[in-house]
Amino acid sequence: MAAITMRLPVVRKAVGPSAPRGGEKHLVAPGDTITTDTGYMRGHGTYVEEEKLIASVAGAVERVNKLVCVRALKTRYNGEVGDIVVGRITEVQQKRWKVETNSRLDSVLLLSSVNLPGGELRRRSAEDELAMRDYLQEGDLISAEVQSVFSDGAVSLHTRSLKYGKLGQGVLVQVSPSLVKRQKTHFHDLPCGASVILGNNGFIWIYPTPEQKDEEAGGFTTNLEPVPLCDREVISRLRNCIVALVTQKLMLFDTSILYCYEASLPHQIKDILEPEVMEEIVLETRQRLLDLEG
Asked: Residue 192 half-sphere exposure, CB side, CA atoms within 13 Å?
């Protein structure tokens, strides 16, 4: 007979208030009036009607001096210069690669915007153009930085630093871009033995922490050695912890992921996705974050 899993209701643990410092966010729905003051400037996600500033999307109101905009709670990725993204090569074209980055339009990675193997600094030749598929081909995952944003919203990428480039073995998790917290660095080596790249576009890459950085590769070589079982278990646990945090709508950054990982240690990896276990470990994570903020 097949095993049947039965879950009984449990009393929820009390948790402190989770409102951010500075008061709660001003949330609006489409059609809500944000302000009737005519001194404000109209930003993204708003329009003016009968001298009232009205929201056109559901989200949180943000004010920068006199500029008012609404940041949508659930949306495609809107690129900004300097963002770190994880993407997948979808097409090889003349002197450029097309990259899927969870935005409305495919992003572009120009041949002139990548490091040549070995870190050579020279003009790109016809031989380099013919060898583009030797560098990156369809289906490859890369990490890159946003170099510029075109007028139609498409994003131009570059991988000129050795920390960017082709990704090797690991696990990709796709989440909403609004849940990834903006930080100074999005590359994190966690003390549990794995590393994460938190892409601003909602693509999160989890991989075993390399023992030594390969500085001569130019971002194109990948390590295809078998990953030990202990590393695979850590990566799987981190992946399930990120899914749990996203399900409970908690912001993703290195501290929240690490706290959630530590809270999940008493449970088996496959049990983390059970609704009551998910709620328990995320409540503990949220409480630790509130204690950290003081």
From this structure: 27
pLDDT in tens, 38-70: 888 888 889 998 889 999 999 889 888 889 999
Query: How many other C-beta atoms can be found within 10 angstroms of the C-beta atom of residue 208?
Result: 20
The SS3 call for residue 37 is coil
Phi-psi region at 238: left, alpha or beta (left = phi > 0; alpha = psi -120 to 50): alpha
Strand partners, 59: 28, 72
Instruction: Say whether 7 sits in a helix, a strand or coil.
Output: coil
DSSP 130-164: HTHHHH--TT-EEEEEEEEE-TTS-EEEEE-STTS
Q: 35: Cβ–Cβ under 8 A, 6 or more apart, which residues?
A: 52, 53, 68
Q: Which two tokens stand for residue 252?
A: 């993703």
Residues 6 or more apart from 24 whose CB is under 8 A from it? none
Q: What digits encode the pLDDT tens for the residues 143-155?
A: 999 999 999 889 9
Place of tokens 């073995």: 169
CA neighbor of 205 nearest in space, from 150, 163, 247: 163
